[in-house]
Each structure stands twice: as structure tokens, then as C-alpha cells.
Amino acid sequence: MEKTFKRCQSLYDVPTHYCPGCGHGIAHRLVAEVVDELKIREKTIGIAPVGCAVVAYDYWNFDCSEAAHGRALAVATAIKRVHPQNIVFTYQGDGDLAAIGTNETIHAANRGENLSVVFINNAVYGMTGGQLAPTTLLGQKTSTSLEGREKKAHGYPLKISEMLALLPGVCYIERVSLESPVEVLKAKRAIKRAFENQINNLGFSLVEILSSCPTYWGLSPKESLDWIRDVMQKEFPLGRIK
Predict the structure, then answer these.
(1) Is pLDDT at 121 greater than 80 in this prediction?
(2) Model pLDDT for residues 59-109, shown as the tens digit of each residue
(3) Which distant-in-sequence residues (6+ apart) come within 8 Å of 7 by Cβ?
(4) How, if at all, do strands 63-66 and 44-48 pair?
(5) 94: containing domain
(6) Does the residue 2 lie in any domain?
(7) How far is CA 150 from CA 97, 136, 142, 157, 220, in A?
(8) Dihedral of the alpha carbons of 61, 66, 69, 73, in degrees to the nearest 10
(9) CATH number, domain with residue 127
């Protein structure tokens, strides 16, 4: 029987280190599929900062660069300006992009840097112990909000995509999810558009992906997918924002 589903050329054949039910592995696969389909593997450069995806370069079979926590878009800007012929993207979590890296994110977007951003939003700090993140939902319990996020103490969840959409330098922003096969396919289409925008020199593109973190949500993998659909999407509605 002919094999119809196989590993992408842009993925290494290695075991995963991610927790069971984590969405990062799916997102890695989607990026790799897009790179292969666009035939840009030999000129793609990914930027992996600190966070759960700090070793993304162990999975992607194309050039990658490490960046300090929060500085992925600063590094990406430098690489893209020196090598404008390359396709440069960042792969960042909510703690990286929307907390310590907020400054780099806003100014790279405002300058209209011709970059693509894959933004993983799992509403918690995953690598460092499950602390409250900028995207943690009101009432959501974390290791640093044991009674749940409270608006007077912690503020509201930060909607970084809606904020960036106001900037004239931003070309495209879409929020997608990994909670079902249908949504995974939509996520892939959004990532592909973000890369195509860069190929066509249209400017800054960002795809926000709602992803599960069963370990720090204290849920099973199945329950985590349900939580994205039933709870998280009410705070972070899916769809094209710009």
C-alpha cells in the first residue's frame, strides 16, 4: 500500500520532548509543511527564543537561530535586513512575545518589518513552571495566581493581536486554533498566508495560535482541547483580525 502521509522534508526524524497533548508538535509540523509546499526550505531561517520551543531547531530541517528571551523579533529584523532574500520567521510563545518581548514585538510591527511571526498562545508560562502569563484568562489558576487571575491585581488578558492590528505597518493578523482537525487545517492556511506575504514583500504578518498545555492547565489532553473551544476562544475569538 502506498504511504500517503509521511514526514516532511523540513522535519527531522527525532522523538518529541513535548508533554503529551502539547500543541507545539502540531504547530512545528504545520510550519514544516508550509515551508516544503512553498519550496523555500533552502532559504528559510527560523528564530527560536527561550520558552517551550527553545529547541525548535532540533525538529526543523532548515536554518535556525537562537535568540535571548523576548528578543526574537530584534534578531529576526537584523537577519532579514542583512539577508533580505531569505524568508525569516519567529516562533514565539505568549510569555516571550507578549511579556518580556512586548517592546520588540510592537516596534517590529510598527516598522512594518517584512517578517512572519508564529505566536503560540497557551495562556500560561510553560517552560518555567506554569506561572501567570499576559494571556492568562480571568479566573484561571496558575502557580502564581492560586486563586485565579484577578483583574485588579493582575489586569486583563492581553490581546496582543488586536493591539498590533491597529498599527499601519502590519499587513496581516489572524487568530487560529489547534483544538480540532478542521481548525488545524485553518491554522496551516493562515501560516502559509503569513509566509506568502513575506515572499511578496507585503510587510509584517502574525498568526496567533491557541494551543493546549495539559500539564499546567491540570487537564487531560482531551479536556485541554475542549477548554480551548469552550473557554479560551470566548476571550480570544478566532478569525482574521487584519
Answers:
(1) yes
(2) 999 999 999 999 999 999 999 999 999 999 999 999 899 999 999 999 999
(3) 13
(4) parallel
(5) 24-240
(6) no
(7) 22, 10, 12, 10, 25
(8) -80
(9) 3.40.50.970
SS3 of 44, please?
strand
In single-letter form, the type of residue at position 57 comes to Y
The rounded distance, in Å, linking the Cα atoms of 112 and 168 is 8
Give the residue among 50, 11, 3, 6 at the shortest CA–CA distance from 27.
Answer: 11
Q: Quick check: pTM over 0.70?
A: yes
How far is it, in rounded angstroms, from Cα 213 to Cα 219?
Answer: 8
72-82 vs 102-110: helix axis angle to the nearest 10? 40
E-state strands within 146-234: 170-177, 204-210
Structure-block grid coordinates of residue 167:
498599527
Number of domains in the chain: 1
User: pLDDT category, 144, cuts 50, 70, 90?
Assistant: confident
β-partners of residue 93 are 120
DSSP string, 124-154: S-TTTTS---TTPPBT--BTTBTT-B-HHHH
